[in-house]
Amino acid sequence: MKTVPRYHITPILEVVVLAMLLITPLLASRFITISLTPILILAMLAISFDLCWGYTGILSFGQGFFFGIGGYTVALLINKAQLLNFYALSAAAILSGIIIAGLFGVFLFFGSTRQGIFIALSTLALSYLGERLFNGWFWVGAANGQNIWEVVSVMGIELNPGISFYYFILFLLAVTYLLCRFVVKSQLGLVLSGVRQNEERLDFLGYRIQVPKFLIFVFAAAIAGFAGGLYSLHEAFVGPTYIGWVFSTFAALYCIFGGSGTLIGPIIGTLAIELGRLYLTDIEEIRAYWQIVLGLLMIGVIVFRPTGIVGFIISEKERIGYFGYKVSKWRFRKKWAQKASMEGPKI
Amino acid sequence: MTLLEANGVYKYFGSLYALRDVSLEVEPNRIFGLIGPNGSGKTTLMKVISGAHYPDKGTVRFNGTDITRLSPHQRSRLGVSIKFQITAVFEELCVYDNLLIAKQANQSSWKLLWSKSKRLLHDEILNVLEQFHLRERAYDRVSDLSHGEQQWLEISMATHDLIENLKFSQQQSLEMSMVTALKPRLLLLDEPTAGMSREERKTTGEILQLVKRSCAIVIVEHDLDFIKDICDQITVLNNGEVLDEGTPAQIESSEKVIEVYASRV
């Protein structure tokens, strides 16, 4: 009897990346650690874009908007309401993303037009609109944005840029990663990949495809909002540029460069682009042109390797994976499975 | 008892009549053939029945319910399944996962998230794959399958919830299988044998005879030899109108049909 093929490259890659991120602060300078922290937060933003585009095929340029909303929510709660509880602030950032994406998503997915390009354009417009709105809104600081003077602490650790903040963010990134992996590997993830490949067929099979699309859009926005809140905490600042299309398009760049349709891809893409930026802007001759270098790299990747740099080592089959029932290798699971198959299907 | 009933269906595309006053009746456990020259409106009629197009005039009733204005997924939940002319499976997924997706259409997103039915469906899916000669290909990508195998996969996806009945019908009498088929079902097949080898056509015919025991089938076909062997009833369309209808034998001897087929094909 044929069984489900197994692949091992992704787990190896995950462990390697995690190990590197774990030991870097021990070996590198404090400057590197502090520079890496926001990069890890941006990786969360890239993952949120990937959930929409790489897994579901929704081209959302609204991730920057949800990111900025999360950032503003945290900054305003600290400055205007003196709320310094980290858990409450995170919950507020996540909720802000959920609420905004929920309201917007109702129009996007349950409205009469449901074409892909419509979603891309309207989310891009939303990002632009957000930037203009916050740029001119005096109460939130207009073009000056909001500085955060207070320091938030969690479990007795003050969240000042440094090693402890770095490890805390790494922990949150890992939790987000595992949560996303659970979602995309579930049967809901199977339906999402169906949405990406052939929406019409799902409709004729009896799925209400708007529901999973809406749910993943809101879930991705929650992650983006959370990342935005963390980002403004780390930078101790939030401004109108955080909310706009710059972060939206960068989220897309990170994800597509690293490898959309995998979860490790966006993280690698963010690290590669942001570290590249860090070092390239140090070189006097390139400083003004590094974006051109980035653009050329981007074109190269899209033309020669549409699956991103991760596509060099992760095969197409492994990227998509299998969603069926696997008989586990572990003995106690095996017994359990045998017992279940003796009972027969319960439907 | 009539399962599907189309009454005076009209469909225009601009000034072009795709369908003009077309009516048909399909009974359960029958294979119903729809033939006609290119551009005679066969595919449009299928689309009107499945909900891809709405008719400009006329009604479509399924099992006594008016479904003329229902969306495709609502019709699907009532029991209308369609397989299009162009194979529309999920190419990046393996055969097994294609069936897994088809089988979970009625589940809530919450249940899907927790993957509760994955293990319970395992035996059932393997059983379906067995019936459709795809057991050995279970973990191959759809893009690696032959054309015929892709077609079988599509038919298996469209009839996924009949498998328990299929098992019954092999073991027990026809009446028994009819009793177990509580849910009225209609399967629409648009050119299921296009591009198939002779051998694959034969297998497809066998599969359809099996499926027929628990649902009604409407087939659009070019291949007259294939259709006259397996159909119980045939309707011939020409220029968007019903030219003739009857049993395969009647259609074969019908002068109107011979005239159209002799002049056009």
Describe this structure in words.
The complex is a heterodimer of chains A (347) and B (265). With 347 residues, chain A is an all-alpha fold. In chain A, 69% of the residues lie in helices and 2% in strands. The radius of gyration of chain A is 21 Å and the shape is globular. Chain A starts with 8 loop residues before the first helix and ends with a helix. The model of chain A has no long low-confidence stretch (mean pLDDT 88). The longest helix of chain B has 15 residues, at 117-131. Chain B has a single domain, classed as P-loop containing nucleotide triphosphate hydrolases (Rossmann fold, 3-Layer(aba) Sandwich), CATH 3.40.50.300. Chain B is an alpha/beta fold. Chain B is built from twelve helices and ten strands. Helices cover 42% and strands 23% of the residues of chain B. The model of chain B is unreliable at 165-182 (pLDDT under 50). In chain B, strands 6-7-8-3-9-10 form a six-stranded mixed sheet, sandwiched between helices. In chain B, strand 7 (186-190), helix 9 (198-212) and strand 8 form a beta-alpha-beta unit. The A-B interface holds A 2-5, 183, 186-188, 190-191, 193-194, 197-198, 200-209, 211-212, 215, 316-317, 320, 322-325, 337, 340-341, 344-347 and B 50, 71-73, 76-77, 81-82, 88-94, 96-97, 100-102, 104-107, 109, 111-115, 117-125, 136, 138-139, 141, 157.
Give a concise summary:
The complex is a heterodimer of chains A (347) and B (265). With 347 residues, chain A is mainly alpha-helical. Helix content of chain A is 69%, strand content 2%.
Spell out the blueprint of helices and strands.
The complex is a heterodimer of chains A (347) and B (265).
Chain A: H1 9-27, H2 30-55, H3 63-81, H4 86-110, H5 116-136, E1 146-147, E2 153-154, E3 157-158, H6 163-185, H7 187-197, H8 199-205, H9 210-235, E4 237-238, H10 245-258, H11 264-280, H12 290-304, H13 316-320, H14 331-343
Chain B: E1 4-13, E2 16-26, E3 31-35, H1 42-50, E4 57-62, E5 65-66, H2 72-78, E6 80-83, H3 95-103, H4 109-113, H5 117-131, H6 147-158, H7 163-171, H8 174-180, E7 186-190, H9 198-212, E8 216-220, H10 224-230, E9 233-238, E10 241-246, H11 248-253, H12 255-264
Helix pairs in contact in B: 3-5, 3-6, 7-8
